[in-house]
Design brief:
Layout: E1 5-10, H1 14-25, E2 30-34, H2 47-52, H3 54-72, H4 88-112, E3 116-119, E4 121-125, E5 129-133, E6 139-149, E7 153-155, E8 168-169, H5 171-174, E9 183-187, H6 191-202, E10 206-211, H7 222-234, E11 238-241, E12 244-251, E13 254-261, E14 264-270, E15 272-275, E16 279-281, E17 314-316, H8 327-341, E18 355-357, E19 362-367, H9 370-376, E20 380-386, H10 391-395, E21 402-408, E22 414-421, H11 424-436, H12 441-446, H13 456-464
Parallel strand pairs: 1-2, 1-6, 2-3, 6-17, 8-15, 9-10, 9-15, 10-11
Antiparallel strand pairs: 4-5, 5-6, 7-16, 12-13, 13-14, 18-19, 19-22, 20-21, 21-22
Length: 474
Amino acid sequence: MSDKFDVIVIGGGPAGYHAAIRAAQLGLKTACVDAFVGKDGKQALGGTCLNVGCIPSKALLDSSKQFYGLTHNLPVHGIHVDNPRVDMAAFIGRKDKIVKQFTGGVAQLFKANKITSYFGKGRLLKGNRVEISGHDGSREIITATNVVLASGSVPIELPFARFDGKHIIDNAGALDLTAVPKRLGVIGAGVIGLELGSVWRRLGAEVTILEALPEFLGAADADIARIALKEFGKQGLAIKLGAKVAKAEVRGEEVEVTYVDGEGEHVFTVDKLLVAVGRRAYTEGLLAEDCGVRLDERGRIAVDEHCHTGVDGVWAVGDAVRGPMLAHKGFEEGIAVAEWIAGKAGHVAYDTMPWVIYTEPEIAWVGKTEKQLKEEGVPYKVGTFPFAAIGRAVAMNEAVGQVKMLAHAETDRILGVHMVGPGVSELIAECVVAMEFKGCAEDLARIVHAHPTLSEAVHEAALAVDKRAIHKGN
């Protein structure tokens, strides 16, 4: 039995490594157990986000954007490039280099903060003991006063479209294709489906996205979703709504996909099929039967509002618990739990959690949608402003989209902000800050925004709430 730790974190993804680092900063003797294996066969901290999620997908999105710009954007600027091509080895290699840089960075942070790192699968035993199963068959048990479960999530697999890693793939497989598929099918028009579908569409693939729900991006504001859907169609993404996939069969080097919509049954063939219907909490082998931790009806670790499991000294954070599966949500929960363990006032602002989809144009929002406010009977005002009237956006040749602000009709307090357009993944932060400080639309309307900038769209939308936008007829 090893020395007892103050904190053991199971999982080295966004929620886990933030919990471990913050705990160590607070003077707690900390260990982290993680089983993720990198391409080199060694431990790769950072979980799905750094290895096969947030970071590598953004690397490919940026690389593919550069290529797409050569033929679709640069000619508008009077710049012409003949016969552009993609070196796939370098294309994927750049992504791998970035991944290694960041996973290695987490390892260095662990070292700097004197966190003990264990390479293997962690299992919670009774009495806050953790069994570590190494990839080499070794077994070790360590113990702690507090255990933080941060096991993350895995892609949902459909029974009629099982992953084979070659023809039917998950997000990890879509990040490592060695050639641009002529035809790519995607099941699911969510964040993963749209982002990875965009990557390969920009490189020349024919991309068809099948979404079972009748509406596009139901979690987003309807006006924003409508603009995005129209623009994606112009880019060549064929998005079919209300399309329920019945089966997917590999035939030779192709996949035959059968789906049903309002017009009946359809069959089409693709070279690769990406299944991106969501993710589920990963808890396989995580909990011993007598450890006392419960799972909810959706297989997530049951916790209270402070991420406590009800078992003394056992906490859970990130994708494995209730709430949105967002890396930054995991960040904040991990930090908050470390602070609660240390007797400090941890906090997670769930009501002002921003959402971002890194397509072109980008989509971002925070707070309530107009539909939600109507359903809740909350009186509200709306202010919108298009990027087409923003000088910086037009000069960039990225003038698609708008900012939509929702404020309380009586108090003017900002209730939600929704954006689609250039750089909105960054613009949303101003609105999050305003909402965190209980700001009103008037507050943002009174703040001086530099000209010319994209942020002027936020300023004008705030002015438009009271029908006084300068560069738009109200």
